[in-house]
């Protein structure tokens, strides 16, 4: 978890080049430009905060907080004079935890909007109302369910086998959207617009692991500060590589979708590794995530970790000032925004958005179902 002040201001300002203010500020500005119908005014801003809150602060914080209002204050922790306060509703049991994360909330809101929108937060205790339930989907007919149950009979896990049968039955009905429960979790298949399908093929500058002509494609939109993204690389990738990528059946494309300034810096450092060593550096960054992310200065700790493979401080500074590396990160964010990515990791498997399916068994089950 990245706390406010983890990247010292004087270090950020000393980096070579303007970098368009800084990496994630640029990403936030891009997100702002990509948003359609950008509203103006305090009320409209609060409405947008509510609508995009999960994308701004992440799903965990979004579950226990709700933006209520933007107000003026005579003084805040970051401003001796007046400043803007974001009032957040939070359940009493979570108030202390959220208060400790105030700096992170301020940083993410400002980065997302691409400008200094708020100076501080103020908590108001109260229950968070649950979101409206999704309307139930019509059930497929019994004959189709029985047919798909027979096809999924080879899957050992009973819950996964039943879920695959339901998925196959819905696909058989011609539905491109389905919900597949996998073990204790669930993931949604999100429809991709036809005009955006070209973004689901290897793009210029993409990093591809595996044979470029492999019949199946997995695109991973990831943030280096996301623990679930690290889990994917640590727990899922070894099996995926052994059974699918190395055998030539699957190509994996890694795309950057940083959720904060530290993740943006990590993405730049990965880009500066070059095509030959890109995935080695990505793997090292994810495997050492806890080590550098929990330090007092994550950016410095990150560079220290990469020094083990020969990265010097001067090379790191040059990478942060490298517009080409930042442009690639921004291009990935833009493609993700266009495809509807709102959280990390988000996996696209053969043109379908499966969000975060879970472990290697879940992904393998999907590939067996929709694989080519």
UniProtKB/TrEMBL annotation:
Q: Is Oxidoreductase found in the keyword set?
A: yes
One Pfam family hit: Thioredoxin_4
Q: Source organism's superkingdom?
A: Bacteria
Alphabetically sorted, this entry's keywords are: Disulfide bond, Oxidoreductase, Redox-active center, Signal
Statement: the UniProt record of this protein carries the keyword Ubl conjugation: no
A molecular function annotated in GO for this UniProt entry is:
oxidoreductase activity
InterPro entries, A to Z: DciA-like, Thioredoxin-like_fold, Thioredoxin-like_sf
Domain Thioredoxin-like fold residue range list: 204-367
Q: Which family does it belong to?
A: Belongs to the thioredoxin family. DsbA subfamily.
Tell me the protein's name: Thioredoxin-like fold domain-containing protein
Q: Which taxonomic lineage is given here?
A: Bacteria, Pseudomonadati, Pseudomonadota, Alphaproteobacteria, Hyphomicrobiales
